[in-house]
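Example record used in the benchmark description.
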Amino acid sequence: MKIAFFRLGRHLAESNFQTHSGNTDGEKVKILYSIIGAICVVISSCGLLTSKIKSWQYIILTMYVTLLGLLGLSYGQIIGVAMFLGLLIILLLMMKENRIENLCLACTGYMFNLIFNNVFLLTGSAMLGISVDRMEKDYYLATSIIYCFILLVTILGIRRFLYQRLNLLYYIEGIPYTIRNGLFINLLMYIIIFLFNIFWGRKLDIALQLCALIVFSFLYACLLAIS
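Model output (structure tokens):
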């Protein structure tokens, strides 16, 4: 059973592995891995929002990403694109205040997740002395659970720093209308970058994927700073 862990252009919800058709245990494994991938997506996308969403909203988002992840096993990369866009729309409907800013924060968290995942895999591979492919193939469950926990702790730490040390909410609420329009344009640029990563990232090995993603993230950060 070949499992591809979360990488640039390999959407977290896809959990792109192969199982024998008709295998009940294989179907259960696919569902389990899709849920783990969905949890990582939701943690990163919602962890930096200006206000915490409710428990039932977390459940809805996780179920949505899990379902689209399972569909992605059959229909390919286009489902990952639809999932990401749908996730933003659902978050937009859930947020009552600072909607544009929260969408930008969701995209930032998601991009951080992709970078952090690649760094995690490369670091784990170097420390354990095994290839990333072997980590994906033989140790997927353990690796994904450990990554999910580390991601949660890291996102919570970043959130505490942003809102308790930097008082980010104060600055967000003071953003004028013209800058909000700039943020919306940056959001559209992010989506374009994301789509490019989805369709191009599969052609690169993990190190090149990471370098490309860092470059794209830097450009996105520059756009945010300019606005």
